[in-house]
Amino acid sequence: MNAIPSVDLKDFVSGDSQRKEKFINEIGTAFEDIGFVALSGHFLSDKLVEELYSEIKKFFNLPQEIKDTYEIDGIGGQRGYTSFGKEHAKGKKEGDLKEFWHFGQYVEDDPKLEAEYPQNVSVNELLNFNIVGKETFKMLEKTAKYVLRALALHLNLDEFYFDKWIKNGNSILRPIHYPPITQEPKNAVRAAAHGDINLITLLMGAHGKGLQVKNHNGDWVDAIARPDQLMINVGDMLSRLTNNTLKSTIHQVVNPPKELWGTSRYSIPFFMHPISEMPLNCLDNCIDEKHPKGFSDITAGEYLNERLIELGLIKG
Ligand SMILES: O=C(O)CCC(=O)C(=O)O
Ligand SMILES: [Fe+2]
């Protein structure tokens, strides 16, 4: 049985108030409980998804010397390529068994933010990679915007509460390649147990085994989506903002059984971040006698900085 509830974004955008309400309740309840949903009815077309996988496979198949030219010093892996084994989960020494690429925000009409963010890196060898990456970024950002509108209503906020914080937000699209495993890994897994930093994560590529989510009993449950679904989860920023009303659930990507060591895994999370000035101070309507304020006040920018240091991506 799949423990992760399914929702359909078409309900929310249908124009039918009952279907809209149904979506808000379903996603709100799931995020207060397991912290994950599998979502269909998003804005990615099959053609775009197919092209994206094809471009990503081509990129990770480039010779290592070429990929290395896209690993840029001094930007903490925020754009371009991060090589195998570099990122480790909070509190872990061993690097994850993965390499990845980062597409960042395509800032519109905001010179200050354009100066604040590192520039996107273009792959000269694969022109379509850059185009398809940008289009996917935009479609996932649009999907995430509607999901956050539903969550705002669930939290008794204005429907458009998040809109101004996520416009030109510091979001990241991260195609990940977990290469074939060639020898018994020493205490390393594809992605060690972690919570995501950001507001919400939209994950493409969770339709094979690998991703596991820790439930309230402390058991790991498989999180598998249908091919037409994105896996969506709450990140630590949204958990802080809601004083843990919405749960940022620990998850991991386990190594496959030995007979499948020879296969790669490709997954593509979109980490929805707000602009750095967004306060993550616990919302008043999420604090009461039973739920005292559990987190100190902090902005999204300050919080991100703390977390990137813990991941080994930037120096403190
Ligand atoms: O590869 C996956 O399926 C999940 C990756 C993940 O959890 C992450 O990058 O934060
Ligand atoms: Fe994650």
Automatic annotation (TrEMBL):
Enzyme Commission code(s) on record: 1.14.20.4
Source taxon at top rank: Bacteria
A matching Pfam family: 2OG-FeII_Oxy
Keywords linked to the UniProt accession: Iron, Metal-binding, Oxidoreductase
Residues annotated as domain Fe2OG dioxygenase: 168-274
Gene Ontology molecular function: leucocyanidin oxygenase activity; metal ion binding
Family designation: Belongs to the iron/ascorbate-dependent oxidoreductase family.
Protein name: Leucocyanidin oxygenase
Native source organism of the sequence: Flagellimonas maritima
